[in-house]
Design a protein that fits this description.
Layout: E1 3-7, H1 15-28, E2 34-40, E3 47-52, H2 77-83, E4 92-96, H3 98-109, E5 116-121, H4 129-132, H5 134-139, E6 144-149, E7 153-158, E8 163-167, H6 168-173, H7 180-183, E9 196-201, E10 205-210, H8 217-220, E11 226-228, H9 232-259, H10 263-272, H11 284-288, H12 298-302, H13 308-319, H14 328-332, H15 339-353
Parallel strand pairs: 2-4, 4-5, 5-9
Antiparallel strand pairs: 1-10, 1-11, 2-3, 6-7, 7-8, 9-10
Amino acid sequence: MPEVLKLKLDRPEKLYDFILKLAESALKSKVVDSAVIFQKQKSHFEVKPILIEDEKKLSEFNVSAFNCYYPSLYGNLAKYLYLTPIKNSKNFLMFAKPCDIKAIDELKKKGYSFNGYIVGLSCFGTINVKTAKKLEEIIGQKPIKSERIDEEFLHLTLDDGQSKNFSIKELEEKGVLVRSNCKHCFDKISSSGSDLFIYQLPNSQFFIEVLNPSIKKILEDTGYSFEPNGNAVNFINEFKNKIQRQAENILSEIEEQFLKLSDSEKLKYWWDGKLFSKCTKCLACVRACPLCICKLCILKKEGKALDKSQVHLIRLLHIAETCTNCGACDVVCPPRLPISSLFQIAQRNLKKSG
């Protein structure tokens, strides 16, 4: 059974200082030869993953943005692994959300191998990057150092040291939206596929699950304090069950609206009505999807000649069973179509039917 340790932090916002220390420890001790960190682009809300090898440069970069705002250059970190030279790296360290890790696992099933360690982090949703800029107006253009989302609040630490806490509900009323696919995510604290996983539980409790003992050394070299906790597994399982019940309820409501329609009404709603009739066949969803990696892709070759419904039905038939609900397709879609909701409803019914 994996070891679970309690991480002692004097303040919750110190979580990302700890993450930086993990990366520094891994590089300094030569456990890995590189680490994936996020580089800020035009604003705090626009970041891209980069590979660094020098631990002294870590302070120049951001490791927290992935947990709140979606990387704008690559829809999912699995896509970054597939498209960049990191796949040829001898050994790397990567911090990732559960949906990123699920997609990496699916790539491994397709025969791709990656030489690295993955530190997974609890993810309570990512802010829609197109609306996140409204936060700048709310906080008065002050530079953000790091952010953390839990069940109910967005916690910001500003460069000047100030802390700002915002209710997710209130932010959504002001147009700062948590992405819809995150709301019905079942895997917010799933450690599957990780080497280390950092749990963020209620009341600012943090636990670390050591799934790969060979990477435990980087914990010991951070200088932080850890202690065994016999009740941690119970806390984690109770909270995981709560999250899954919430996701089940939200997805059931979406599904109920769909299933109560007749077959002809479903077709009209999805394909002829207000939703997929807006599709421009730009194929941004194909390019963003971490699992759309076929070298011979009929959509890329003949997509423009296909009917709009055919484009999405072909994708649905291709990845419905493996879709990780990362929402990369939703993020890049110009007319904001609810692609991931459709795919997750289909996946859910496939599982029910066996």
